[in-house]
Write a structure and sequence with these properties.
This protein is mainly β. It has helices at about 80-90, 240-245; strands spanning about 10-15, 30, 35-45, 60-75, 90-95, 100-105, 110-120, 125-140, 145-155, 155-160, 180-185, 185-190, 195-200, 225-235, 250-260, 260-270, 285-295, 305-310.
Length: about 325
């Protein structure tokens, strides 16, 4: 009897391309842990406007191919570096163990081969020219700490064999909200921030369809990043409200730790939108502010700096 594919057997593999949309001659696949992955390649089927002397619709025609996926990964101290490399390229690495990897946005962004493996039915969905279009993370609550990555790509083709039969993998070391801390304006704020969300939109251009590529993208060039999010806090004083009302520049940083490993996401220049606390009942009052991050004149010379400290000696595209 033919069996249904089972999600628990699924795997996600990535590799980095040298040329957009072209798989490396020598595969170097990396297995990455994940919670969910959705989407995939779709091709539009367009209705024809052809008139043929009757009321019957003419045969539809094929439009462009779109590859879009969202992958939700558990936050950990090692594998998250692969996704950060896909967003920012190779980090600046210092240290001799622990190693400190500093990621900042560059002028270009790597593209990847991706593989969604369903081995119990022998199906391997291989993506080409895949880039990370966005990152979303929310810190707070008691749920599993995850990160959501939006992916876009050139195309995805069904294969009968895996891209790399011997992929590399790194041991999983979870980072938890329990071990997170937040700085606002460079000052630690224990017992104040209830939730912090961050969204990084990489500003990718997904309109570059070219003739002769069977309705697929010829490239996915980079544009201007957009960094935004929201902060929810227990309303204990007016310090945050005053900054929001005056449009005062501040900064935000969240850090996760696990033993000697850590992950810090810092936004050196942030402005809150003006808002007032809401009273939704008789219990504690909270305040919530949306924000935009940017780079103007901060000494960090970047709109976002992500520092990953762990036991991985190198994150290399090769």
């Amino acid at each position: 009897m033919t069996k249904q594919a089972r999600g628990y057997k699924g795997q996600v593999l990535i590799d980095f391309e040298t040329d957009f949309g072209v798989a490396p001659a020598a595969p170097l696949g990396r297995l990455v842990p994940y919670n969910t992955i959705d989407g995939g390649a779709t091709r539009s089927l367009n209705a024809a406007a052809t008139i043929r002397g009757n009321r019957h619709a003419a045969k539809p025609f094929s439009g462009n191919t779109s590859l879009s996926r969202t992958v939700v990964v558990p936050l950990d101290t090692r594998n998250i570096g692969l996704w950060l490399m896909a967003m920012f390229g190779e980090p600046v690495t210092t240290g001799t163990g622990p190693y400190v990897h500093v990621f900042k946005p560059g002028d270009t962004q790597p593209s990847m081969v991706t593989e969604i493996a369903l081995p119990d039915v022998g199906v391997y969905l291989r993506g080409a020219g895949v880039k990370v279009a966005s990152l979303d993370i929310t810190v707070g609550g008691d749920g599993e700490q995850t990160v959501s990555f939006g992916l876009v790509g050139k195309d995805e083709v069904k294969q009968a064999a895996t891209y790399d039969a011997t992929p590399a993998s790194m041991a999983f070391d979870r980072l938890e909200t329990f071990a997170a801390s937040i700085k606002e304006g460079g000052v630690a704020m224990p017992s104040r921030i209830a939730e912090l969300s961050m969204r990084m939109d990489m500003g990718l251009d997904t309109t570059g369809y070219t003739i002769g590529d069977a309705g697929t993208l010829g490239d996915i060039p980079e544009g201007i990043m957009n960094l935004s999010g929201s902060l929810t806090a227990l309303f204990k004083d007016t310090s945050l409200m005053d900054k929001a009302e005056a449009g005062t520049e501040t900064s935000l940083e969240v850090q996760f730790t696990s033993g000697g490993a850590s992950l810090s996401i810092k936004l050196p220049e942030v402005i809150y939108n003006r808002a007032a606390p809401a009273m939704n009942g008789p219990q504690g009052v909270r305040e919530r502010y949306d924000y935009q991050a940017y780079h103007d004149d901060a000494a960090d010379a970047s709109s976002v700096i992500i520092t990953l400290t762990n036991d991985v000696a190198s994150y290399s595209l090769a």
